[in-house]
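Hey, I was hoping to borrow your eyes for a little while. For a while now I've been wondering how a particular protein folds. The fold is given in discrete form, as structure tokens running alongside the sequence. Could you read through the record and tell me how the tokens relate to the sequence? Take your time with it, there's no hurry, and the full record follows here:
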Amino acid sequence: MSQNPPSLRPDLAPRAKLTDTPRKGQPTIGMVSLGCPKALVDSERILTRLRAEGYGISPDYTGADAVIVNTCGFLDSAKAESLDAIGEALAENGRVIVTGCLGAEPDYIREHHPRILAVTGPHQYEQVLDAVHAAVPPSPDPFIDLLPASGVSLTPRHYSYLKISEGCNHKCKFCIIPDMRGRLASRPAHAVLREAEKLVENGVKELLVISQDTSAYGVDIKHAEANGHRAHITDLARDLGSLGAWVRLHYVYPYPHVRNLIPLMAEGLVLPYLDIPFQHAHPETLRRMARPAAAARTLDEIAAWRSVCPDLTLRSTFIVGYPGETEAEFQTLLDWLDEAQLDRVGCFQYENVAGARSNDLPDHVADEVKQDRWDRFMEKAQAISEAKLAAKVGQRIDVIIDDIDSDGIATCRTKADAPEIDGNLFIDEGTGGLSVGNIVSVLVDEAGEYDLWGCIPK
């Protein structure tokens, strides 16, 4: 059984799952969804609108009248992946509509693929629908085409992403997401709660809260209160925790008020899990990134969080080989990681991205040096992960079951594991009475570098 690979990209969403079966004669649209969970939510919203208008959702190119490719523009490598996906869709289907983050650069896309039907930017739902209508006119059957109350989901039915805001107000030099997705735009808290309640009513056991900057939720609308709910991340987390599902917080920028979330985790209202993009630890590197440069105080904050909630799992992402990064700066990052003892870590080698201010910085790091530093960073992160998981052997922990294969082996996740980006817990036997989506107590009997194995206690 393969273990969770250390090179797994932390910016990717789970692969979209299309299970719809179109009726005979129904106009059908295919969807290729690339990039992060926020893009996956955009894909779900587009498909939900299309289903409401009578379109079928095709799981393959050949069964579709047109294909939407929801692209990623986060890194140049992601752009190349998006262009490849567009090319494949054109070759296999021929009628392609492009949307998503790379859609903010229509001339760039058309330069490579002039035959595409239309290009729209991220979260431009109406423009995507207009393009679909022009390419494939709707033909609804009001007696058959009824949209499920939960909408179209591209994730397994027992977990769902819950997007609470769009955009970002930060100006990190290596990132162009604010240019593509705009400034922070928070959803009203009561609208988020209403969506979450519907998801839980329809069987969702885990809500994964996502945005570009979860900690800043509500800042743009001055933490407005409506229908009894205040648009502040602490209040929202408390409200979501009252629904009875697991609540997992992603993309939490380490503002001081994050400490107010930790007691909610200690109480069990939300999962003891924080996904925080620290990016680096040396103050000069952080300054060149245009990010807060208080890594030492961050260590104090982490210690304070763990004193309140000892079971807290911390996941983060880092960039190695950033322009100007010296060996001494990189060593500071390794030393910081030793002290921080983060549970889950993802790492990127720096890449130039068209339009990013970091491209113009001096002293870019050679590719072979980036690779060497990535290898050394991941070696240390792997050793920390292995030691932390070994300490769980003999413990009883709750897991959620994501899959049970034909051999009866269950792939599960603990409260410390987000879908696709973290590890798994595997149950090798005794799974006969279990189902996908069950939350069960497991005795951990073996640990690896990134994954656990366990059994159902008799």
In short: The two ends are 24 Å apart (CA to CA). The chain has three domains: 28-135, 159-390, 396-455.
